[in-house]
C-alpha cells in the first residue's frame, strides 16, 4: 500500500463516518417528526441500525486491504504487550539475539567458504585437478608446467584448462607509499578467458604476455587496490609498479566482485606465470560432460603424463618411493580452490550444527516463557472467543506477537553477528603466514534471506505452543476459572517437557564444548620438546638492504653478539625456520653404514641453527656438541634429532659418521655432512603431527648466513626487550627492516587457529546453553510458584515449614533435570564420537565428559531453582489466600 492508497483510504474512512452520522441523524429526525420522544427515537434507531462497529468492518472488507490493517493492528497490540511486560520481553529478545546472532555469524563464514559461487561465468562447470600421496590427509594441487601442458592439449572432456601459482606474501610497491604485503596469482595466459572474467578497465593477461620480458611483466590489479592506492584513476593503465623487486606494468583492473579463485584469500594482483614451481590446475567442463565422465578420462590420462612416464622409467633412481602411488583426484571448483574448505569446512559445519541447536534451545526457552505468560491471559482469550473472535484470529494475534519478538531479536542478532564475524575473521587471520584465511564476507541477498528465514521460523516455532494454548479451552470454562488456573495441566506437562528438552540440549552442548576446550588445553600444555616460555622471535627482512651474502653474514654475526648483551636476555641465537613456523626444507638422506632400500626411504625435515640455538630453545643436547662459528669452514657438519639417529644408528654412535643429502627442496645444499651431535626430539615443524625425522644444519656456513629469525630467551617479559632489539637493528643495519616481532607462545597459538576457534566458540556456546537452560528452568519454577500460591498459603497455614516448601520446589526442579539428563546421555555419547572424528586425540574419557555435563547442569539447576524456592518459602499465607 503506497502513500496515495493510504490517503485514499483515509478519505474513505472520513466519508464512511459522515455517511453513518448522516444516516443516523436522518432516521432520528424522521421519528421525531412523527411525534416520538427524541430519546426514544434515538434508541429505536440504534436498535434498527445494529452494531455500528460491525457495519464498519463489513464496509472495510468490501474496500479490500483489510488484511494489512489487521496485521498493523496486531503489531501495535504486540508492541503494547511488550511495554506492559518489559522484563520478560527483554529476556526473550536477548535470548533470540544471541541465538540468531551466533547462527548468522557462523552462516556468513559457511556461506563464504562452502556455498558462495565464484563470480565467474557458469561456475558450476569448473573443476579442480589434484593429486594425492597415500599418506597425505588431503589431495594437493601441485603440478608441474609439463603436466599442465599435457592435460591442456590431450583431454577430450574440458573446454579449457588453466593454471596458476600463488604467492601469499608478495611485496608490492606502487611508487607512492610504503611496500604492501599482498596475495599475488601468477597465471597462465588463458586464465581470465577460462574463468570468463572481463576487466572493468584495460585488458586481461594473455598468452602473449608470457613471452614479454624486455620491459618486465604486465600486471592486472584488483578493484580494491585501484580504489585505495590509485583513487580509481583511469590513467592507471601503463603505470609501473614493483612486485618482489621486479618491475611490472599495469594493463587492467579486475571487476569489483572478483578477488581470485580462493575463498580464503583476497588476491591483489595477477601476473603472467613464469612456468616455474608448482601450479594449481582449474578446468572447465565441456557442455554435457559430467564430473564422473571427466574423472574417468583424467584418471586414465594421469597414468600417462610425462611425470608418470619418467617415474616409471627411473623408479630405481627416483628419490621418492611413493611417486608411483600418487592418485588423481578431481573436485568441483564452483566455490573456488578446495584447500580452505578441507582445512576448516568440516569444523564450520559442526559449528553451524552447534549454533543451530543453540537457537533451538533459545526457541524452546522462549516458547516456555510465552506459554507461562499465556496462562495469565486465558480470561482475555476467553472473552475474545465469547465476543465472536475466531480461533484463527486469536492464533494470528499470538503468532504476530511471537514474530514481533523474533524480529526484535533478529535486529539485535544482526549487531551481534557483525561483531562476532569480525572476531572470527580476526581469529582465522591470526594463523601462520601460509595458513592465514582472509575471507571476504559480504552482506548480500543470501545472507538477508537467511536472516529473514531464521526470524520467521523462530517466531512460528516458539509461538505455536502459546497459540494452541490460547484456543484450546472453552470460553465458559475459562471464564469460570482464574487466569492462573486455566489450562494449568496442559502447561504443567508441556512446560516440563520443554525444560527437560532444554536440559538435554544444554548437556550435549556443555559436554561437547568441554571436549574442544580440553583438546585445546592439551595442545597448549603438551610437551613439544622445547621450552615455550620467555622466548622472543625477531624476523628480519634483508631482501632490499643491498647487502651481499658475505656482508649479510657479517651483519648477522654482529647482531648475534649484540643481542646476547641485552639486559634481561639469557641467550640469543638464529634459526630458520623458527619452531612451528611451518615446514622448512626437506630431502632424502643416505647414511654411512646403513644401506636402505629405496622403498623404505622417507622425507627428512631440514632446519638451520646458529650457535647456542638448542640452549636458547631448551632442546636437550644428548650427544656430541652444538654448532660453533668455526663450523663455517669445511667439512660441513650436521646435528640429528633422536628419531633420525635411532633410525639410522640403532646400535652405534652417530658422532663422526656422515650423511649425504639429495633432492633437497627449497634450497641447494652441499651433499655430504659430518654428524657432530644428537638432540632430543621436538614438534619443531608441526604441533599436530608425530615428531619428524629432522636434521639441523649450521646457519653460518661458507661465509654466508642461511637463517633469518633471531630467537632470544629472556629472564623477564619478552616484550620488554623488543625496544632494545629494534634499537640494535637500526644501529647495526639501518637498511634491514624488522619484519615481525612476536613471542614463541604467540607463534604456537598461530599454529592452532582451527582448534582455538572451535574451543572458543564451542565453550561460549556451551556457557550460553547453560544460561538458557537456567532461564527456562527458572521460568517454569516461577510459574509453578505463581500458580500454586494459594496452595502454598494453605500449606503454610496448616503448619508446613519454609524448608519443606523449598524442598517441594527443589524436588520438582530435580525431577525435570533428571529427565533431561536421561535424554541427554545418548546425545553426549554421540557428541564424543563427533569430537573424536574431528580431533582424533580428544582429551577426556566418556565418563569424565558425562560427569562434567551432569555437574554443570546440576549447578545451573540449583542456581535457577534457588530464587523460586526462596520466594515460595517466604510467602505470606494471608496474602497468598487473598490472591485467590
UniProtKB/TrEMBL annotation:
One GO MF term on file is: transmembrane transporter activity
ABC3 transporter permease C-terminal domain location is: 353-475, 764-877
Question: Where does this one sit in the cell?
Answer: Cell membrane
Keyword RNA-binding set for record: no
Q: What is its main location?
A: membrane
**Residues spanning the membrane:** 90-114, 348-372, 403-425, 445-472, 493-518, 757-778, 809-830, 850-869
Presence of keyword Electron transport: no
Query: What membrane topology does this protein have?
Result: Multi-pass membrane protein
Naming one, the record's GO cellular component terms include: plasma membrane
Residues covered by the MacB-like periplasmic core domain: 89-299, 516-727
Show the InterPro entries listed in the entry: ABC3_permease_C, ADOP, MacB_PCD, Macrolide_Exporter_MacB, Perm_prefix_1
Name the UniProt key words of this record, in alphabetical order: Cell membrane, Membrane, Transmembrane, Transmembrane helix
The family line of this record is:
Belongs to the ABC-4 integral membrane protein family.
Instruction: Please state what the protein is called.
Output: ABC transporter permease
State the organism named in the record.
Answer: Paludibaculum fermentans
Amino acid at each position: 500500500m503506497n502513500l496515495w492508497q493510504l490517503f485514499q483510504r483515509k478519505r474513505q474512512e472520513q466519508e464512511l463516518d459522515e455517511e453513518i452520522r448522516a444516516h443516523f441523524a436522518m432516521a432520528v429526525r424522521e421519528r421525531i417528526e412523527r411525534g416520538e420522544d427524541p430519546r426514544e427515537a434515538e434508541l429505536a434507531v440504534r436498535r434498527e441500525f445494529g452494531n455500528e462497529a460491525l457495519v464498519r468492518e463489513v464496509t472495510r472488507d468490501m474496500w479490500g486491504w483489510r488484511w494489512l490493517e489487521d496485521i498493523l493492528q496486531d503489531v501495535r497490540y504486540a508492541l503494547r504487550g511488550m511495554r506492559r511486560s518489559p522484563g520478560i520481553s527483554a529476556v526473550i529478545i536477548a535470548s533470540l539475539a544471541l541465538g540468531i546472532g551466533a547462527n548468522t555469524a557462523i552462516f556468513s563464514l559457511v556461506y563464504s567458504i562452502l556455498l558462495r559461487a565464484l563470480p565467474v561465468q557458469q561456475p558450476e562447470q569448473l573443476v579442480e585437478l589434484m593429486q594425492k600421496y597415500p599418506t597425505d590427509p588431503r589431495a594437493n594441487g601441485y603440478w608441474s608446467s609439463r603436466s599442465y601442458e599435457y592435460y591442456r592439449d590431450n583431454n577430450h572432456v574440458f573446454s579449457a584448462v588453466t593454471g596458476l601459482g600463488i604467492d601469499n606474501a608478495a611485496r608490492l610497491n606502487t611508487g607512492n607509499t610504503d611496500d604492501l604485503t599482498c596475495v599475488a596469482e601468477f597465471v597462465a595466459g588463458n586464465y581470465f578467458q577460462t574463468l570468463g572474467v572481463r576487466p572493468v578497465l584495460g585488458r586481461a593477461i594473455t598468452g602473449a604476455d608470457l613471452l614479454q620480458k624486455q620491459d618486465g611483466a604486465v600486471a592486472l590489479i584488483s578493484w580494491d587496490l585501484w580504489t585505495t592506492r590509485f583513487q580509481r584513476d583511469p590513467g592507471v593503465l601503463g603505470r609501473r609498479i614493483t612486485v618482489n623487486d621486479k618491475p611490472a606494468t599495469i594493463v587492467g583492473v579486475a571487476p569489483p566482485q572478483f578477488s581470485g579463485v580462493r575463498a580464503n584469500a583476497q588476491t591483489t594482483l595477477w601476473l603472467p606465470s613464469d612456468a616455474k614451481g608448482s601450479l594449481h590446475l582449474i578446468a572447465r567442463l565441456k557442455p554435457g560432460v559430467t564430473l564422473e565422465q571427466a574423472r574417468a578420462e583424467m584418471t586414465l590420462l594421469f597414468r600417462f603424463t610425462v611425470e608418470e612416464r619418467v617415474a616409471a622409467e627411473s623408479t630405481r633412481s627416483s628419490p621418492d618411493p611413493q611417486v608411483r602411488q600418487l592418485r588423481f583426484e578431481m573436485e568441483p571448483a564452483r566455490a573456488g580452490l578446495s584447500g580452505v574448505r578441507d582445512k576448516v569446512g568440516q569444523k564450520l559445519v559442526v559449528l553451524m550444527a552447534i549454533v543451530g541447536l543453540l537457537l533451538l534451545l533459545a526457541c524452546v526457552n522462549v516458547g516456555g516463557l510465552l506459554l507461562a505468560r499465556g496462562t495469565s491471559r486465558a480470561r482475555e482469550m476467553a472473552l475474545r472467543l465469547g465476543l465472536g473472535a475466531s480461533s484463527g484470529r486469536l492464533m494470528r494475534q499470538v503468532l504476530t506477537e511471537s514474530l514481533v519478538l523474533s524480529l526484535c531479536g533478529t535486529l539485535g542478532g544482526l549487531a551481534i553477528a557483525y561483531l562476532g564475524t569480525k572476531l572470527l575473521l580476526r581469529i582465522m587471520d591470526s594463523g601462520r603466514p601460509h595458513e592465514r584465511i582472509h575471507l571476504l564476507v559480504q552482506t548480500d541477498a543470501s545472507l538477508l534471506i537467511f536472516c529473514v528465514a531464521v526470524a520467521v521460523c523462530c517466531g512460528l516455532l516458539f509461538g505455536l505452543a502459546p497459540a494452541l494454548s490460547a484456543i484450546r479451552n472453552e470460553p465458559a470454562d475459562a471464564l469460570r476459572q482464574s487466569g492462573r488456573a486455566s489450562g494449568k495441566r496442559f502447561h504443567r506437562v508441556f512446560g516440563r517437557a520443554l525444560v527437560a528438552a532444554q536440559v538435554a540440549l544444554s548437556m550435549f552442548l556443555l559436554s561437547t564444548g568441554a571436549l574442544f576446550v580440553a583438546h585445546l588445553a592439551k595442545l597448549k600444555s603438551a610437551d613439544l620438546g622445547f621450552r615455550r616460555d620467555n622466548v622472543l622471535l625477531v624476523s628480519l627482512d634483508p631482501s632490499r638492504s643491498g647487502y651481499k651474502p658475505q656482508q649479510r653474514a657479517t651483519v648477522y654475526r654482529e647482531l648475534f653478539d649484540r643481542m646476547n648483551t641485552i639486559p634481561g636476555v639469557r641467550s640469543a641465537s638464529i634459526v630458520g625456520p623458527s619452531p612451528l613456523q611451518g615446514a622448512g626444507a626437506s630431502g632424502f638422506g643416505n647414511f654411512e653404514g646403513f644401506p636402505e632400500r629405496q622403498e623404505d626411504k622417507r622425507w627428512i625435515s631440514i632446519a638451520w641453527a646458529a650457535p647456542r640455538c638448542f640452549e636458547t630453545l631448551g632442546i636437550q643436547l644428548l650427544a656430541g656438541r652444538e654448532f660453533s662459528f668455526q663450523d663455517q669452514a669445511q667439512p660441513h657438519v650436521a646435528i640429528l634429532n633422536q628419531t633420525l639417529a635411532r633410525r639410522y644408528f640403532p646400535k652405534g654412535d652417530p658422532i663422526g659418521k656422515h650423511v649425504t643429502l639429495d633432492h633437497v627442496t627449497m634450497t641447494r645444499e652441499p651433499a655430504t655432512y659430518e654428524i657432530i651431535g644428537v638432540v632430543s626430539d621436538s614438534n619443531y615443524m608441526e604441533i599436530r603431527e608425530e615428531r619428524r625425522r629432522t636434521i639441523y644444519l649450521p646457519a653460518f656456513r661458507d661465509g654466508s648466513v642461511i637463517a633469518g629469525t633471531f630467537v632470544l630467551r629472556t629472564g623477564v617479559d619478552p616484550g620488554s626487550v623488543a625496544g632494545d632489539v629494534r634499537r640494535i637493528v637500526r644501529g647495526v643495519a639501518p637498511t634491514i627492516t624488522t619484519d615481525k616481532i612476536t613471542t614463541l607462545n604467540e607463534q604456537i597459538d598461530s599454529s592452532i587457529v582451527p582448534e582455538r576457534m572451535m574451543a572458543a566458540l564451542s565453550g561460549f556456546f556451551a556457557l550460553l546453553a547453560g544460561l538458557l537452560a537456567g532461564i527456562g528452568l527458572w521460568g517454569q519454577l516461577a510459574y509453578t510458584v505463581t500458580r500454586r500460591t494459594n496452595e502454598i498459603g494453605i500449606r503454610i497455614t496448616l503448619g508446613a515449614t519454609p524448608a519443606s516448601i523449598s524442598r517441594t520446589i527443589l524436588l520438582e526442579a530435580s525431577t525435570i533435570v533428571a529427565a533431561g539428563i536421561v535424554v541427554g546421555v545418548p546425545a553426549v555419547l554421540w557428541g564424543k564420537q563427533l569430537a573424536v572424528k574431528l580431533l582424533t586425540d580428544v582429551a577426556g574419557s566418556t565418563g569424565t565428559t558425562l560427569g562434567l555435563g551432569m555437574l554443570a547442569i546440576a549447578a545451573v539447576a540449583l542456581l535457577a531453582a534457588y530464587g523460586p524456592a526462596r520466594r515460595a518459602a517466604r510467602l505470606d499465607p494471608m496474602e497468598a489466600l487473598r490472591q485467590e
